[in-house]
Amino acid sequence: EKAVNLKKDLAEMQEWMTQAEEEYLEKDFEYKSPEELENAVEEMKRAKEDVLQKEVRVKILKDNIKMLAAKVPSSGQDLATELNVVLENYQLLCNRIRGKCHTLEEVWSCWIELLQYLDLETAWLNNLEEKVQMTENLPDKLDAVNDALESLESVLRHPADNRTQIRELGQTLIDGGILDDIISEKLEAFNARYEELSHLAVSRQITLEQQLQTMRETDHMLQVLQENLGELDRQLTSYLTDRIDAFQMPQEAQ
């Protein structure tokens, strides 16, 4: 009777493993939304816990069959053979579910990381847009133009590492058919805004550099003219002080 019960337990265990494999490993999942992906991750975590909890039951079966084999070798031998099959299948199921759970967790982590990089780069784009807007309607003063140019150049020195991460993470998920529509839409919007703003910023940078150069040249010319006028004023003053007749002065002084 004990052998019959153990045989029944082995059959039930095998049936449960077959059902678990069908439910958790043979489903054709499509992750088209973050909610679907997150639900799949949680489901696989529960599946892993469920399967690992059966380890106690498997151990009890193993111990009982060993005890029976010691008492009744003929019955125990047949059960031991069935037990080995169940143990192999159980270990395979555990490994496959662990693997799928790990893969889904990695995919979810990849998605979250992509969102974080997009948030960082979006904040940078917002800052860049603000700096570009600040270059509009500047006072016609050298310091104001110089400060605006330096501020814009500082933002433009932003490294490209984050954009590289966005491209690689997004492509990895899209290649795996994970959230491909959503990610493609996000990347398209981000890249379009990046191209537009970066081109506008570089164009404004060139304009400011040219404006600054012109203002510096003008400022230098005014300075030279001011110095010349000052020297001329000193010469004229000395002529007047010495009561020199105008016709005795050099032509340029007249």
TrEMBL record:
Coiled coil regions in record: 3-64, 208-242
Pfam families assigned: Spectrin
InterPro entries named in the record: Spectrin/alpha-actinin (IPR018159), Spectrin_repeat (IPR002017)
Residue ranges crossing the lipid bilayer per the database entry: none
UniProt KW Coiled coil keyword: yes
Coiled coil as UniProt keyword: yes
Gene3D superfamilies cross-referenced by the UniProt entry: 1.20.58.60
Annotated keywords: Coiled coil
Protein name per Swiss-Prot or TrEMBL: UTRO protein
Organism: Urocolius indicus (Red-faced mousebird)
